[in-house]
Amino acid sequence: MKPSHILLPAALSLLVAACGAPETKSQTIDVSADETNLRAHLEFLADDDLKGRQTGSEGHEIASNYIVSEFKKLGLEPAGDDGSFYQRIPFRKSTLKENSASMSFESNGEVVEFEFPKQFITGPSHYSEKDEISAPLVFVGYGMEAPEFGLNDYDGLNVDGKIVVMLTGRPGFLPSEEGAHLANIKTDIARDKGAVGIITLHTPVREKTRKYETSVYYTKTPRMTWLGPNGLPKGEEQQLMGSAYLDDEPAAQLFANAPTELSKIFEQIEEDPDFSPKGFELEGTVTLARESRHEEITSPNVAAVLPGSHDTLKDEYVVYTAHSDHIGVIKDMSREDNINNGAMDNASGVSVMLETARLFVESGQEFDRSIMFLSVTAEEKGLLGADYFANNPTVPLSSIVANVNLDMPVLLYDFADIIAFGASHSTLGETVSKAAKQFDTEQSPDPMPEQAIFTRSDHYTLVKKGIPAVFLMTGFNSRTEGEDGGEVWGKFFAEHYHKPSDGLNLDINYEAGARFTNINFAIGKEIANADQRPQWLEESFFGKQFND
């Protein structure tokens, strides 16, 4: 009798079992993101009971505990401090005392008092509850140093022990992302040069895009920073003793006897956006004084690791980041809904990260490099949780090969493409394209480069440490006929961003969320098993900064 072709495989399996099957380290399983899991995570994190997950609040602690419980469920190893999943961060919240800020200018025996907040504004000090500084002035143009762009605003100037006076903004010829990065480090440059204070000048050019009165609105808002292990703000010894933002008309008085009148400088930058004025010393002395109130709170990052399997590469890490905080509750209790639930910002990103972690664990695969999943706090306060980790990493910073950041994927439409901010700066761009194509999805170029989004989320804190990163968002094309993804995306930002309406009443597309998760999983797998760690591209500005 001819043996059945159906029974033959079973018989062969029994034979192999009897003879002894070859040992395998793990069984690979084809896994895919589950819409139900994404929904469960997102609905928990964006629930009213968490009160908008404000940094330092009970609601954010509940969110952090939930994330830890999910990491434990997956069997991930703790990667926080002291063998725990938590990296507990001490923060200082500082508020400017009412009627305490003053600014005066003395020149040739005459003293001019500037009016707060009508003519100048300032913020609280994180260092002291009462401070006052008097020092001579040096105008430093835009206050930038970038030899590769021909910028050296401190050339020939001695600002040690002085207050630097600089224009807000940057020259127009700078590329968007590079210019934003250089603008972000102005304070660091001034401090490194020995300046004791900064006066930033509001310009007519800036007035066209952001009115001076808009900045005045935020003078009563508390500011926050993290405290280093030495108890100092960001762990740094104090150098900058004072700061002020001065409106354009009163600022002219500082230039009364200057080599170039301020009005002339304003005319030049208005006529030629690429113009970068040269610096010079200013006559006179400015005195800045203020009083601040301090409150100290704590809030955790949460970190877990799936260990790698390679003998040496297991000591390298691919890091996924997603911020778990949001902006809490609106103080206007007359509103029917005053809870900023942050469904898209960023319960969606955390949900994608948790589901990505599940795919790594349940795939049964072994990965050469270790995978870290890092939920960070205080993103809404200025990327502070991520910045704390970047300066106080729980693994050696040099061992982190890449960062994939998940911040606010707008899962409200059937996206057909993705945007990877930072893709043009490192080999990660090619990795993202390869991963996306596995799911019939294209990578599109940044549709709004003027926004410099690459410098505006948590990954940027690791970029500044030289670590290649990408920040993914859903693209503006849709798979659904008649649906304009860009229009849906834009409507979300216009109507729901940082508002109570960013909640569970949104028409969330969990199928799109699953696809977005699968793409992120594919990106991480590619990085984890690649022979070489990701590299900055030589022609990239960041490559030139970090490849030396």
TrEMBL record:
Residues 301-519 form the Peptidase M28 domain. The keyword Signal applies. It holds the Pfam family Peptidase_M28. Residues 1-21 form the signal peptide. SUPFAM superfamilies: PA domain (SSF52025), Zn-dependent exopeptidases (SSF53187). One of its GO terms (molecular function) is metalloexopeptidase activity. GO terms for biological process: proteolysis. Keywords: Signal. It comes from the Bacteria. This is M28 family peptidase. It comes from Idiomarina abyssalis.
